[in-house]
């Protein structure tokens, strides 16, 4: 049911890839569940006909192939999907307020070479310095947003107000550092003329 609430496209490669991965994992879980049920059904039939011992059920239940069906694994999977759903709602809110969303994983020119926050900063400044309009880049992450929610809300409101009330045209771009290995320690606002 939760998949019905997820968008079909995030307009960002990283969340899109996560969605595809979750859809594949979900299909795998459904296939595993079908195989598990068939295996149990066949084994129960064999036990009734005295072709198998009841302890065979323990072997099936403990089989690593069905580990994804354990409650702890299902709960972890649902939590990750819920986080992606929350991300989709967040991205939609940004769009509704005319804020462009960019995931830093989509900025890296070469996915194989790890980049630091400073490297990404250079790439973003280079990319957006050629714009005709003024640009505000807002560096943030899910962790910062969660741990410093009041400050996040304050920055959000101030930037929205600025974009709406300043005479010159300003583009606001939210840069999401959530999936970068290096931890973004604080919100950063970069203004480019």
Which key terms come to mind for this protein?
193 residues, alpha/beta, 2 domains, 7 helices, 56% helix, elongated
Question: Structural class, please?
Answer: alpha/beta
Mean pLDDT: 91
Q: State the total count of DSSP E strands.
A: 4
- Count of individual helical segments: 7
Order of helices and strands: HHHHEHEHHEE
Q: What is the rounded distance between the termini?
A: 45 Å
- What's the main sheet like? 4 strands, mixed
List low-pLDDT spans. Answer: none
Strand proportion, as a percent range, falls in 5-15%
Q: How many separate domains make up the residues?
A: 2
Q: How does the overall form come out from the CA principal axes? A: elongated
Radius of gyration: 24 Å
**Which percent range fits the helix content?**
55-70%
Major sheet strand order? 1-3-2-4
């Amino acid at each position: 049911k939760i998949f019905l609430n997820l968008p079909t496209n995030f307009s960002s490669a990283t969340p899109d890839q996560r969605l595809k991965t979750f859809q594949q994992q979900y299909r795998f879980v459904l296939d595993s569940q079908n195989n598990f049920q068939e295996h149990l059904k066949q084994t129960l039939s064999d036990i009734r006909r005295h072709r198998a011992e009841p302890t065979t059920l323990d072997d099936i239940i403990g089989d690593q192939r069905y580990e994804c069906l354990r409650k702890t694994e299902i709960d972890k999977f649902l939590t990750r999907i819920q986080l992606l759903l929350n991300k989709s709602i967040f991205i939609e809110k940004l769009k509704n307020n005319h804020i462009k969303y960019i995931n830093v994983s989509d900025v890296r020119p070469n996915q194989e070479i790890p980049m630091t926050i400073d490297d990404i900063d250079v790439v973003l400044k280079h990319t957006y310095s050629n714009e005709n309009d003024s640009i505000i880049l807002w560096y943030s992450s899910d962790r910062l947003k969660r741990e410093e929610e009041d400050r996040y809300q304050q920055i959000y409101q101030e930037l929205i107000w600025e974009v709406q009330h300043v005479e010159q045209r300003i583009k606001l771009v939210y840069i999401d550092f959530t999936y970068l290995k290096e931890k973004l320690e604080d919100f950063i606002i970069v203004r480019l003329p």
